[in-house]
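Entry:
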Amino acid sequence: MSTSLQELCVSNLEFLSTLHGGFSSLRHLSIQGCMSPQIGMEFWSSLQILVTLQELSVGHCDNLDTVPSLDNLTSLVKLSISHCSRLTCLPSLASLTCLKELSIGLFWDELESFPDFQVIPQLESLDLWGWPLLESLPEQIQHFTSLTFLRISCFDGLEALPEWLGNLTTLEYLDIGAMQRLTKLKSIFISECPLLKERCNEESGPEWPKISHIPQITDDLTSLIKLSISHCSRLTCLPSLASLTCLKRLSIGLFWEELESFPDFQVIPQLETLVLWGWPLLKSLPEQINTSPL
């Protein structure tokens, strides 16, 4: 095995025993879809020698129930442990002093609270995946004072936005809602939180006062660079995008499935990226694509 190997992806194996020699330069390791309950303790032990490892991703390992110590992986910058339906706890993250990006969640769906994890002062990006039984966000989030990116998905039981969410004043991207003190917020996206959607209703929702100060997309969000409106099964039309003169990236679609044509939307001359989501009844692409200078 070449000692210069820097990236390794292991997927869909029944068992992982150990990493032998030749991985001293490994920077990126991905373990996906492995069915062993523990992925082999010898394998985890062999990870401890990967002191240069910068990215580790463990996902879709449905029988995994334990992730042992990561204490020696002090060079990790990015860590993802998610979509492991039998996992009930997380390893200690205290020694990961270089960690900047963390993605965790979608564990055993009988858990009524999110597994404990350490506060990481230098963390800049946090991606949390929940499950239906969870009714609140992990309290630790309020102490991540360097966060610029926070995405919260699949918290179906979430009914209220915690007041402390407004203390994360360094946030630039938030995928759940907004508070008065989030003055740097540039992107807003609420998804996969049906109970939260009801509570944010303009006329009767108890959470509405917390987000009522956010301007309408069609009027005042002229600094918006990225906009995503998708996976909304009752939506039949789009707001005007004409005033979004800074918009560079647009993702839209997967609306009401009875629509036979894509809702009208303006041509945006400065747009650089367009992601379109369709549905079965659509037989053609939106005509606007022909005149868009992508």
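The helical segments are 41-47, 194-199, 208-211, 288-291.
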